[in-house]
## 1
Amino acid sequence: MDSLVDASKQALMLLFSGDATLWTIVSISFKVSAQAVLYTAVLALPLAFILAYGHFPGRRPLIALFNSLMAVPAVVIGLTLYLLLSRSGPFGNLRLLFTQQAMILGQMMLCLPVLVAMGHSAIQAADRRAWETALTLGASSWRAMQTLLFEVRFALFAALIAGFGRIIAEVGSSMMVGANILNHTRNIPTAIALETSKGEFSQGIALGLVLLILALLLNTALTLLQGRGEMIA
Amino acid sequence: MSTKQELIAYSDLLKLYNGKCLLDIEQLVINHSETLLLTGANGSGKTTLLKILAGLNTPERCQVHYQQRTFSWKNARLPTRLPAIYLHQHPYLFDASVSDNIAYGLRRAGYKRDRTRQLTEEALIWSKLEHLADRNAKQLSGGERQRIALARARILHPRLLLLDEPTSSMDQSACEQTFFLIRNLRHEGVAVVVTSHQIQQLRLLADRHLVLESGKLHEVENSKHGVKPAPHKTGTVRVLPTRNQRNPDHHG
């Protein structure tokens, strides 16, 4: 128990003393996951819209597929991406393995099903009149889609935060395709795994605290936003 | 066939619902500046018909005759989308201010910011709701929403307005205000198709009365003047078999 208390004290000191190594790890984590969630959103939201409003064969199996993909373990994604990007793999000549780009790709693969599935339920639950009203007032299909997405923005924010939560804390994929290289591909979860295995609990706890505070801030922001939305509606 | 008054005509319209025939309309002609009352039992397909006319619901087949040209329904969607605007029974207002809602169509049409603001202000005055300009549209009452929706449609200068039960669940004064706005639109040259259960009130407003029954359109005598429609108008809204129809099935 004493060691835990000591480690926590040291962790706080590390955080507030501006330890360069620690904050580099934090910034890599943010940079990679923020890019991953952003790129995924660009792909996922139109896809979610097509799944909700499109009429084509195979639509329902596709929705079921995305729902099931939400449960795929990060290590499986990591392994798949590793095989694809390794020198002998089909994309080996891109030399992406053990780079931040590879980590972004892995996190995008993890994030995509979450954003598509949650985005799809949000859009499906949206009022269809919003879509028809936008069209009848002269909006193009693309513009009407944007209007509809704006109308359900609170649910979509929740999807983005859930997607971000899924990838900021994942170890498996980042460890396998990033390889935990200091100042390059070491992010919060891989650093925690490493420091814990070395018995350096204070840095692990400090990084864990950063993750917890982040989760708290994001969810508070979302709750405030949704509160405003409810007041209006 | 076409008269100089004709705005738009739809022919050979077929719509199936769950494999059953919902609408089978041989011809529907709508003229400039005329108000049509469309009635029918619940589930008779009034809303579906209005949405097909507005280009929002896909029929199995339909031909659209507009500006001396004939289009398939699919090809007609773009040219007719702008002149025809559909208003839901309970209009949908976007989660934005009343002004932004009214300006929505103008922005899509690429109007400049100053012009958009000016036209939006005029539209608010027209609907007598200028005091609500900055209010979020979701906070309005049913009657106010209907008036905002009418103003939002009118600002785009539609040739044809399709109103789905505009006065359902409205109190008397809100109804009066809505009727007043519809009457104004007619004087501005807008053709209006309106569905309603409040037949008595709307008959006073409508030039003619169509009934949708078993998927077919019948024209019935409009009791507005206590007589059948004036002769010069009888040929304008027709529910007649097309020339090539083998088995004419004439109703009305």
## 2
Amino acid sequence: MGRVLRRSLMASLLDVRDLHVSYPSAAGGYPALAGVNFCVGRGETLGVLGESGSGKSTLAATLLRLLPAGGTIDSGQILLDGVDVLKMSPRELRELRGKRLSLISQEPSLALHPTMRVGEQVGEVLRSHEARGAAGRRERVRDILGRVFPDDAGRITSRYAHELSGGQRQRVLIAQAIACEPVLLVADEPTASLDPSTQHEILSLFRQLQRDLRIGVVFITHNPALLLNFAERVLVLYGGKVVECGPTKNVLLAPQHPYTRALLRCVPAFEGAQARGRKAALPIIGGVAPNLAVLTKGCVFEPRCADRMEVCLTREPRRVALDARHEAACLKFGE
Amino acid sequence: MNERNGTEPLLRVEKLTKRYERQGRLWRGESVLALDCVSLAIRAGTTLALVGESGSGKSTLALCLALLERPTSGGIWFKERDLTALGDREQRGIRGQVQMIFQDPAAALNPRWSVAEIVREPLVVQGQGSRREREDRAIAVLKQAGLAAELATRRPGELSGGQRQRVAIARALVLAPKLLILDEVLSALDCSVQAQIVNLLLELQRSLGLTYLFITHDLAMAAHVGDEIAVLERGRLVEQGAVEQIMQKPQHQATRNLLGSTPRMIASGALKQEL
């Protein structure tokens, strides 16, 4: 399972191994993540593609040990530079979060303090992690804000969150996240509430920071189109499991797993609109998202799968290497 | 398309302007021009996709057309009647024919009401039908929206995002409207659910002859569902035309910017051929 990939990325920055996370339910707990494995290299962007209920937000929260009450990490390892985040004490976690591992959340308006100026909010991250004097902090804040607002950092520093646009707020969150030069950024749908041109700008900013600072990024989204020119590799989550993983071009342009193929067909063609016939029905994935509270023996996508076989009912697929870097968990490809 | 697709527009907007006065002593006298002399028309039975960045005035236009905001000046001609000239009481009669569906169904549905109560409320407000008839009508439109009658007793919190948006669609259909204003109705949904809702909307348009104003910032989706595309920029309508024309020969810089920043995942054609 993931053997090929693991060997090739021995010196991974992040190595997640067999992660199991569950939430309580009347029936005694349902698995939100069921055996997730993946790696992120230093300075690499991994796109995590998943729909509601796939476990993508649980994954983001678990990486920082910020699961909501009730969520339990049942087993697995999250190795950041070889150290298991799951074994860290609360004090070690405080040291970790914001300093080596940062989270950028979906709603920038909720994540910012309403009565603190932008400069103070970015400075606060530094104050809790670095022993700089006030003057040193101010200088560093100016430096960081200059990176995310090349044109008007000075003006933004003294603003309050409500005076900023959605894109500007997201830039402030990015400034906070990179203030202590972390090695890994976890971004959970950071552009979901933005319009396309702002989205575009924020993605370019991510790319640039990542190049300049060599930050690894786990970029979680439900929108495959965002990942195409952005992520180096893509991991597809469905029902708490990794169903496909590989280089972005392979996964998005030549998808192999039946779920990935069905999902990408749902997205309307752009110039291809005439080819498909404008206003024609889009292909859909039949059925509904899986009910994880009901334990199934077989493949979690089987009820909705166009290629299902009898064996899919009883045997759980494992990830199979399709080539050196591309893997899919489907019995079509052997066991 | 069909016989409804005549030359007469169902909706014609002329020189619509909306100015918001800023509140508070500090801002006295200052105002924001949200819509600046916007003119457009939608033919019956067709879809006009309205695109533009945040703050371009898309939602203000939607609210004016749905009679939820009074424009500062200009006219909204619906079936050759100027809606802006109508009083509150007369507007009420029009509301049944012009319905709006919002972006976030979780926020647009009362969490304490059952699905049946939500869907029949417009009939209660408009004083249509007996209790029995209202209940039957509610079940009928739920079916049209692709929801099983068993869901009628559920509350919105017990439904998925896609099911909630279907409830919002059923509520909009219950008064048998002519024009639906769809304000970013897909953007809170997953890709696979978006496809299901789009298919439902296309199907309803075919079977009921509905006319849509489809507001979105997803140009690929606009090109798929629209007959025409209109582009708003800072309150001004900068371009309107047939989908093919806008996509292939965009005239205005704002349109070209939107086209340029839309992630073109399938533009390469690689995926389409492979699938």
## 3
Amino acid sequence: MSTQTAHATSAFVEDPDTPEYTVYGADWSEVVDEAKRLGQQRIVVNMGPQHPSTHGVLRVMLEIEGEYITEARAGIGYLHTGIEKNMEFRTWTQGVTFCTRMDYVASMSQELVYCLGIEKLLGITDDIPERASVLRVLMAELTRIGSHLVAVGTGGNELGATTIMTTAFVAREETFRVIEAITGLRTNNAYIRPGGVSQGLPEDGVAQIRAMIPKVKAKLDELMALQGKNPILQLRLKDVAELNLSACMALGITGPILRATGLPYDLRKTDPYCGYETYDFQVPTSTDQDAWARVMLRMEECYESLKIVEQCADRLEQLGDGPVMVADKKIAWPAQLALGPDGQGNSLDHIRHIMGESMEALIHHFKLVTEGFEVPAGQVYQAIEGPKGLLGVHLVSDGGTKPWRAHFRDPGFNNLQALGIMCEGGQMADVVVAIASIDMVLGGVDR
Amino acid sequence: MSDGTDMQAPGPESPSPQGREPLTLINVREGLFGAKGDTSGYDGMVDRVQMPGASERPYGEWFDGVVDILSELLGDDADEAIEYVVVDRGELTLYIAREHLVAVAQHLRDDQDLRFEMCLGVSGVHYPADTGRELHAVYPMQSITHNRRLRVEVAVSDDDPHIPSLVAVYPMNNWHERETWDFFGIVFDGHPSLARIEMPDDWVGHPQRKDYPLGGIPVEYKGAEIPSPDERRQYR
């Protein structure tokens, strides 16, 4: 081990001759002086895992020469919770409550891709009521807006622009109000279920959606005005963390980073699901391939998502009340919860039916909820356009009531591989910009 | 699922000419509830669950064309390289022999009529009952040019869990292969740095294998004790 030097990618060096510096706060100049005195050329700086600008618990190992990065490597795994393994021990329906906690900023994207996968395994993709599909699209788009706003807002905050964050979070809160009114929860909703969604719109649901749209739009306009011509922000983001199309292809990058290189690749257009082909929206692209382009694309995508939300409201109004679950009683979990005075959801009509009216209904309820439903053996791969890129799920069933294997391809996990190529050769301060422009959430990366 | 050794197959039912079991044996389930000695009388049930079988031509859609082009590019190796072709639920799965995986991936990526530019990672699956082919690596491939998706699957045994790395062809698979090594113990030969990625560096074992227990502690709830999820009485 003594021949090794401290190096970001090598194994841990246990060499008493290698100097180690511990830096707290503002004594950097002392460290630099000490390094100069010892004639050290290279310094390895550890950033995180508890660093406020790493969007969770990301550890970045940076090898620096002066202010410049010569090598950057990401260390992940600090938020690994074994969600995929846990899902193998729960019924297919219960799995929703696990996968929603992966990328917790875009909860319902995981729910959607997981449920679409199960439905493909069951062969009931075409039996999903239209109302449920519209609600899924509505939720997917509200989630996309929320996720993009967090990306843009925290990205601004990390550069010291707190107002960008507060404005973005106010707008996100507006989407949360509607999400809460419909699903009962702000995040980790477990709203989308195999076969449909857990409940339909509340009485004034459409009105609430319609009231939200102009509020979010106003905040988006405010954010655009705040960022669009801001010279400081542009200086920090333009031509920083560049990644061109061939690098994106080599590293499997999808989502806004890929679209910022000019390729309009969006699964909602190329491989539509939930009837996305029937909605009118654009896929914004740019050719600037830098952090600034990604921020602007995310903002534009929010406007496009609002357009889809508006169309969802129209369709929901037109469709009126009705089922939001498949008709097959062997799959459809009891749904249609009503919000009680205690703030808890409950389905009083359903309880009256199973407890007071029908013994068979009680048996059926018990079997379905405790045992679950069987999914024919086989495997599927389902992908959707998540806010952060291609979100895929690989599901294997052994014909039982639980997944044999559920694997998620989180776009953040894949895209984070680009951190090195974005940072190396750039300045230390731009690492924060690069991380923010990748926009991963470590809950999804580590799962 | 902590008793992975109990799930040994009673023996292949119909070995194919190559001496291989034609389909992936996913699981062998005994009894109805997992608990032994229950009073239902269903204790003796043995259920062998297998993957949908190899498909016959025509495969439908664009599948025939892709398999033809790939066979042509592989030349004499084609029969050996492509073990089975399975079309199920509108998805194409190619079972590839590991010796030919890199060549297959290279063709899939580079040929203008195939052009699967992206490999969407690698998902490991553990089938303890599938003797000799316990560990599967599943590679979903995405073609942006032709807007197609197929699945390449490689099976290896527990005793020799080596698969050539695809990082040279698909650099994006770097972390995905590390993850599959971490969770399943599949060794990707030729990977530039096959270190653990999610678990701590000094972790022992590969947690997503079926013989690795989930873990957990019993929880008391209103006077009753609820066992941990993998110790609970289960249906099937």
